[in-house]
Specification:
single chain, mainly beta, Lipocalin, 1 helix, 10% helix, globular
Length: 174
């Protein structure tokens, strides 16, 4: 009995250490992103196929950043597996602005240098348009407490029309 009480007390004391730290006030408007998510079959515009996967968004660096880790599996328009890839994105503040850096298992890197936030509702990340390169836009919008819509697109050089690359819906599982 005594051993059980010691074990219970140890767990109770350790629980706060295992909890995620609170987001710092500057990132608190993005708290709606935190959690474990699973996607419905999303649309991949360029191939006519679909994508599905998981996303884990955690509070890191004592509340000063968010880290998104994803796994995406692709299915071709013919219904056959078409590969997949892993991705990470670090969301942080710098020089008074919200930034994010993305990298994936196919060697793509995107530096989002601007963000438009509707606290607790949505965030849109935008990359600059470097010479000869498109600009990218990634949007998360909370549709319901546990439902998140995602849109990823690019603005080809010299245009202001967004070319949607992929859309999807994530459902919070934890």
């Amino acid at each position: 009995m005594r051993l059980a009480l010691v074990a219970l007390a140890t767990l109770a004391l350790a629980a706060p250490a295992l909890a995620q730290p609170a987001l710092k006030p500057v990132l608190a408007p993005l708290g709606f992103l935190v959690g474990d998510w699973k996607s419905d079959a999303g649309k991949v515009a360029d191939t006519g196929g679909t994508s599905a996967g998981t996303s884990h968004i955690t509070v890191e660096s004592d509340g000063w950043s968010l880290l998104r880790r994803d796994r995406t599996d692709l299915t071709g328009a013919d219904g056959k597996p078409a590969g997949g890839f892993s991705q990470v994105m670090l969301i942080y503040t710098e020089a008074g602005g919200l930034r994010a850096d993305y990298s994936d298992g196919e060697g793509h890197v995107i530096h989002y240098q601007q963000a438009k936030v509707r606290p607790g509702r949505s965030v849109t990340f935008m990359s600059p348009s470097d010479e000869g390169q498109p600009a990218y836009r990634l949007e998360y919008e909370l549709k319901a407490p546990d439902t998140l819509a995602v849109t990823f697109g690019m603005l080809p050089q010299g245009t202001s029309t967004l070319h949607t690359i992929a859309t999807g819906v994530l459902h919070r599982v934890k």
